[in-house]
Amino acid sequence: MAGPSKVEFPGQKKQRVRMRGTKHANEATANKLKRELKSLLENPRAHLPIMTWKGKLRWGRTDPVTKTMRELETIIRKKDNVAWLGKRMMSKRGDPVAKAFAGSLHAAHDEEITLVGNFNSDSFGTASFIRRGDGKQGYLAGLQNYSNLTLRMLPWEDHAKRGMYFFTWKGGFVCTGPKPSPPDEWLDDVLGRSRFSFTKTEDLRVPVWVTEGLDPQAVLDFKSTEDGYLRFTFKHGPVLAIGFDLLENTPKKEASFIHHLALSMLPPFLPSIADIDAKWIPKGWDDSVSLPDAAFESMDKIIDAWQGLVMNESVISLALKRAVLDSIDSGLVVGDAWVAGDEFEQIEDALQAHSGSKDERHLAAHMLFASMKEASADSEGIRITAKGDVSERNAAALEVMTGTSCGNVLGALWEDWGLDGLAGLGITGEEAEEIWKKQLSKPQPFGNFLKSLDSARELAQKVSRFPTRKQTLSGATGAVHDLILQSLLEGIGKAERTATQRHDSIDSAAASWAWLQAANRSTGQEWHFDVNARDRGGAWLSATKQLLDVGKQLFDCSDDEVEGIQQKWLEAFDALKTATGERN
After folding, report:
1. 246 near 206, Cβ under 8 Å?
2. CB neighbours (10 Å) of residue 59?
3. How does pLDDT run across 86-123, given as a tens digit for each residue?
4. Which of 188, 215, 221, 518 is the residue whose CA sits 20 to 30 A from 143?
């Protein structure tokens, strides 16, 4: 069925139709394409890869690149025959590269360039080109933009898929056949155009390229350096190394070095021409001792991810360091350092980079030292984070992460190793236990805790004088006992608040009332207690007052008098149990 007739009205502007993916060429684009096409027409062979491989495929077959080059040679001989080129570029058969080549030579005869195609590829880049014939857009763009070092390889992607290798640089474009053999000029040019500044050393057994701060001989021998490095060992000889410090400073929008290197060859598969490995050990690790196998396995996975362009280049050095640290299964990891943990001074020195006072660092070192002495091959590895949290490690080692303060270390280890830390300061026995318990139940910042340690020790010494311990006794006798100790050790005000709280039994209420009366703190507090509790507490008043008076003597006496008053305390305590009926 015929379409509707097109009617034009007087004064109507003619509509222009533009193909999708095309644009009007501005002057700069048109002039650039004219130069490229003129160069292609004048010297078409210079826009093709040079075949450096002279071998033969199995069974004497001719390689695909040579076959394509033969077809292109026929087209070159007809490059000035526009009619013939027009037929060849529309041919339904023949080599796809030859078809795009004929179309590009045909476009080179155009006098004016007004409409151009817009090619865009995440891998090969962007470029303008003239659509001509039935050739693939990418092939046309690659042939017409030879100055684009990456894009010039695109017409040969099918050949690369069939096992042929191509290398491109400012001074040339070659095909090395089924064996990836990059020319020396290729590596020189690619490294010269990279974002890193390399220094080349040629007086070693192979050429060595290194970034600033790396020793070429150490890189060649694969020895450790302070900051670590990535090493590329090219299969045709040269060695290349990039320091971790430069990788860590990679701007987010900066092109990846691995991407830059890979897109200078086709197929962009770096493992075919180079082996990549990393070298880094924590400070303090003996270079003659190999890292655990898990470290090498993890580093290989990270390097594979980097080569596959799925890992940001700016984090690869941190990831590699983390892989090593996570694999260490002995000793103590402190930040980026490692110590065996069998010498106290080593641990204290390793904590120098972590914030905290000298006293905090000293106590933390004692606690870490104690934990390391108890560690065994079967011990579970733990990690103390910068927030003071404790988490498990896959490998059996104790780790204090970078940024963790000494106070966070103390907080994380206090429950298990606080007594050992105090022992390191010379505080032991009941005195140490009282200090440890108080800090555990009512923790304060360790800086303040250590500043007040002298007063805490004095108080702990006072507590240690009492033959009986707080919160270890039950019943009415235990309630009176705890109120007396609380009033002596923490202050009478705190004890009064405890006594006037809600009580769960009449004996508890009676014990509180007995203490309030004995301490002369009962005035105005009657409304907290019912009559029965006040009557029963009144019956216990004499024994309670006796125990309170002996307690004050024991708290304030000299060291020489302690033993005698302790006996009085036990006698008064026994009398209180008799009064409350809890003697048995």
Report:
1. no
2. 5
3. 899 998 888 899 999 999 999 989 888 888 888 888 88
4. 188
CA distance 422 to 555: 23
Sign of the alpha-carbon torsion through 465, 468, 469, 471: negative
Rounded to two decimals, what is the model's pTM? Answer: 0.72
Q: What is the dihedral of CA 29, 32, 37, 40, to 10 degrees?
A: -140
C-alpha–C-alpha distance, residues 366 and 212, integer Å: 41
Q: How far apart are CA 246 and CA 331, in angstroms?
A: 30
Phi-psi label, residue 471: left if phi above 0, alpha if psi -120 to 50, beta otherwise: left
Q: Would you say 132 and 140 are in contact if contact means Cβ atoms under 8 Å apart?
A: yes
DSSP reduced 3-state for 214 = coil
Taken in order 536, 539, 543, 548, the sign of the CA dihedral is positive
Strand arrangement, sheet containing 165-169: 50-51, 172-177, 165-169, 265-266
Number of helices (H) and strands (E), helices first, in the chain? Answer: 24, 17
Can you read off the two tokens belonging to residue 181?
Answer: 């053999």
Q: Using CA atoms of 172, 175, 180, 185 in order, give the dihedral in degrees to the nearest 10.
A: -10
pLDDT digits over 176-186, tens only?
Answer: 999 999 998 99
As beta bridge partners, residue 382 has 392, 398
Report the alpha-carbon distance of residue 190 to residue 173 in Å, rounded: 13
Q: What is the CA radius of gyration of the chain?
A: 42
Give the H or E element holding residue 210: strand 208-211
Question: Measured over all CA atoms, what is the biggest interatomic distance in the chain, rounded to whole angstroms?
Answer: 129
Three-state SS at 217: helix
